[in-house]
């Protein structure tokens, strides 16, 4: 199509929208001002000049933000005849950012009013002025003034320069040119450091450091004098010829010049049909790609429900906008339409074009794609016929629109034409709500009641696939879904198809994690979990492939519970599913007899919060643990209880079994009622919101410790029925004590770890992986009692045990009373000192280990803490 054809307003290629010029700027001499000089540029030289000039802006504010580092250390007493105070340095440094923040919002207004290039020129002037004010300052306030001026320049340049590049650069190079700006910014900072180093030893060198920033500003001023304004702003201001000339300079070797011009002029109502078609086609293409990416994630019906109201609104607004052109369209002769008075101003044509673009985007995202998925809605027996009829309907509608659009525009006006199309969209939206696959909950329940019992398979077969999937997702158990699908093979194929929406719904109803993944991935994972968790596994005697599969599923679910963040007060659906499944198996009951795997012990320990949940844990047996192991009978201290490469998970698990017995079994002589009386939110079985960094030590812990003091002389005496703890000893009030720890990390201070503590619980990991902490220990039942001092450290265990990462070792000492006196005095006095060593299970929610009396090593026992 030639340019003459596009300018012809009487033929079939007449512009759809009237031209809207700016009466304040569109003078006759605007078309000739500076055109000859602008056309002298060649495309390649122009692009490189543009890049280099814009790069200087990046270099300038990169230099001026980085130069202050060298200045502060070399200024000495040159300012106000004194050394800079902390306040001076803070003000000098921060005033640049403050004034950049102030300048940024105003810069956008000025850029629209005066043009992008003039704002950049003004920023250059401010850069130069600020640099000179700093260089010639003799007072602190003068330096602050200069830095503030530079801040105004930085705010202006950083806001407008990327805009200037993006509006001038050709599309094929725009991304690279804007990236070059970022490279110049970082390069300016590097230059600042180099200049600072070169002048650091010179007398008054800091003045050269800050003053040199004026030279690039002057240089950019000279270059910008030969560069044009952006075509977008020129068109907005009414300089149409200059805008075309600028585009010619950029695209003089590109055959698509007029296509790019369309993007600008159509957005400002200077559109020809060809160019409008190009912009619409581009919008259609982009949103078709978006629909391709999201249609399986959002769902067919939801895309329709999201897009069709947008189409309706866009058409209605377009119809209202066209009503302003009624006289122009109907009353004026075709050859004089361009001379008709524009009663609506310059914004109405832009509004029409915007509405058409929005309509096209919504159409491409919804109706332009979803109808081609219609084969999913038809049963297999009539799928070919149904698809053929649907496709015929589509092309028939296209034919009717193509045949009647222009006559309708002439006969009933554009306003009524677009309003009629809007009514069609309204009808389509209503039918989508009534007939699409995902019905409302009351309707679907009624549908279930109508077509159940399942023997009425004939009626169910008449339903579309996605309605059947919605029906299946409302059933309460997996067995019900299975029964529904087993009605016949056709229903099975519809419900259990890999792309079925059923899997995403079922997974979201039962588990915490709902990532943006395809339905077939949800299907595989959901089916595996449903099969494994629905079976009754026994772990007392063996560990074969079935038990290994069960443990792998439990491990995956535990990792989700550990890592997924929930809102405060929200229960974990994954943890609830795991709790229900553990109630049907003996996994938490006791260790295996036939050398269980490391993963078995790791999962057992990771489930410690669940193991102490009385609703799912069965009664423990006396042979669940070995008392000699629990109390370290016959062991000499000094060997780490918690290793790194040879972590004895079985021994730690026996301590967990000890607490299961004494906290959950009411028939035990040492059953501890205090634990049972704790409120639910203080028990470890409740899902809590984790800190963002799971490697951080929790600040609040609640726990229990047991002691047998002193240790008996023989193992037989230790294993006596009444000597499971110290409950039968007169000098101890309770068999088990409850206490609270309040700790905080000390990352910058290595708290001392006394020699006597090292002899009991020596550090074993590298010092770089060690974090120290301090805090207080409080007796839970007696909050008024004097607090005791806590100090210790944690160590990372880098080795993954049982396929689960995140294990940590913790060692700490609790000293009676205040530690204002030295530790040696504590050891020599009457106050008690206890050393603790434990394993923190993954997720940081519980620790299990042993404690030892530092003054009498025969006083020892197990302990457990869980975070609050």
Q: What is the end-to-end distance? A: 74 Å
> Would you count the extended β strands for me?
8
Gross CATH architecture of the largest domain: Beta Barrel
Structural class: alpha+beta
Unreliable spans: 1-43, 251-278, 326-345, 378-385, 434-445, 451-458, 689-694, 727-733
CATH fourth-tier homologous superfamily of the largest domain = Quinohemoprotein amine dehydrogenase alpha subunit, domain 2
- Helicity level: 40-55%
Protein name: Major facilitator superfamily (MFS) profile domain-containing protein
GO molecular function: myo-inositol:proton symporter activity
Organism: Penicillium antarcticum
Family: Belongs to the major facilitator superfamily. Sugar transporter (TC 2.A.1.1) family.
Describe this structure in words.
There is one protein chain. This protein is an alpha+beta fold and 868 residues long. The protein is built from 36 helices and eight strands. Strands 1-2-3-4-5-6-7-8 form an eight-stranded antiparallel β-barrel. The chain is flat. The two termini are 74 Å apart.
Brief synopsis:
This is Major facilitator superfamily (MFS) profile domain-containing protein. With 868 residues, the protein is an alpha+beta fold.
